[in-house]
């Protein structure tokens, strides 16, 4: 007779009348495949932990966002936010879909160029642009978004040696009714800094002020804030038109749309609280359309949406290393992935699903990573079926920021695969090896040998 | 280890401790262990039974069985003055 499937013996005290602070059970079915690629096979072929990107989800999310904006506004251009996920294969999916590149450093700028993005389709944001990087951006006709006056003066100086008029925008920060207000990037709207910067740019007549940019925050759950931002940028654009007779070609609303992740401390899950992309589109496009632009002078709407487009396309597959009991009787599960590769575990209560069959019994536990560090907590409390050593799990909605903010700390970074539209997995980033780390190190000759 | 004699055990995995008023739920394998403990079977006998019935290795059974006994103890379901064997 075939043996029965084993499940760890479990006893749960029943409490009536009080709320379970661990929340109710959320997982009902194992998550066994991603777009047709089996989780077990992916782990067998590429090891564990493993990041998996669904190309289908990327394309679906992009097409949905594109539809939401283009059905409401005539001129829309997306630019892929490199910092959200700059693995080249991921960027290229967005470029195939028509996205330009939005970069915030010289490194990202060169990465976009190397991938074949034309210079005039790169938006160069960020507070740190070196003289050499600015020169390159001017030569390439890239859109330079000026963050501070020092950068503006550097560009003015560069125009004396480069026979080209840089194409610039200024980054504007403003009160859009949300807290905290982001005022460290760009020039403030309310106190007049933004208008001063605009006057300087126009009056020096060394560069073309082609756009206005803002990036009001991150994981913004209030679409109305974008409406406010778009109104203020439109007012600035119309004031420039009135005072100088110059038409602003584009308004860039930056990024910050929320994904379906659940923020820590949030009572409801992200799936319930995150506004649909249509709400953001409605708020932004209505504000611009109602601002008073002449029809032929409507600015193009640029969007640097990152997280909302990629987060749900990313999965992290992992394996249970061990179960243990904490001093207070709570169960703890140790996984082979930690906060070093799942940086967003600091912000979100990630949805985690077992990748194999399980019963309806659950237990509350703390989920730890493998690092020898007390802060390595993947979930402070999670209700999951009992799992044993070697069982696999799938962490959902990890496509944004993890593959750029991950750290080579204690352990090496895992491989990344992309599952294509036919369900075939492609390795898009190799698992790191010791030689990757060694390659950057130098050993002084006198330290080469030792005796123990 | 012995389980308290007055503990009520239902076939669906509902456990009631009349001396404290606490109730618990256990999964099928937990229920099997508790029933066998009540029948005063030894730890070795119970582990052998699990190994025979379920597709699992000895080390995991050993680890999980003693963790389960600890939980019974922590939940005050073990007979007083009895030590984990």
How would you explain this protein's 3D organization?
The complex is a heterodimer of chains A (452) and B (85). Chain A has helices at residues 39-46, 55-70, 88-96, 106-114, 131-139, 149-161, 193-204, 223-244, 270-273, 277-289, 307-310, 402-405, 434-438; strands at residues 4-5, 11-14, 33-34, 37-38, 50-54, 76-81, 100-103, 122-124, 143-146, 167-173, 187-188, 208-213, 250-252, 300-303, 314-325, 331-335, 352-354, 363-368, 377-384, 392-395, 415-419, 425-429. By secondary structure, chain A is α/β, with parallel strands linked by helices. In chain A, strands 5, 15, 16, 17, 18, 19, 20, 21 and 22 form a 9-stranded mixed sheet that branches. In chain A, a hairpin with a 5-residue loop joins strand 21 and strand 22 (425-429). In chain A, helix 2 (55-70) runs parallel beside helix 10 (277-289) and helix 8 (223-244) packs parallel to helix 10 (277-289). Chain A is globular and about 85 Å long. The model of chain A has no long low-confidence stretch (mean pLDDT 95). Chain B has 85 residues and is an alpha+beta fold. Chain B has a domain at 27-77. Chain B is built from 3 helices and 4 strands, in the order E-E-E-H-H-E-H. Chain B has helices at residues 28-38, 43-53, 58-74; strands at residues 8-9, 14-17, 22-26, 54-55. Chain B has a 3-stranded antiparallel sheet. In chain B, helix 2 (43-53) crosses helix 3. Chain B is globular and about 35 Å long. The A-B interface holds A 3-14, 323, 325, 329, 359, 361, 386, 388-389 and B 15, 22-30, 33, 50, 52-56, 60, 64-65, 67-68, 70-72, 74-75. Strand 2 (11-14) of chain A pairs antiparallel with strand 3 of chain B.
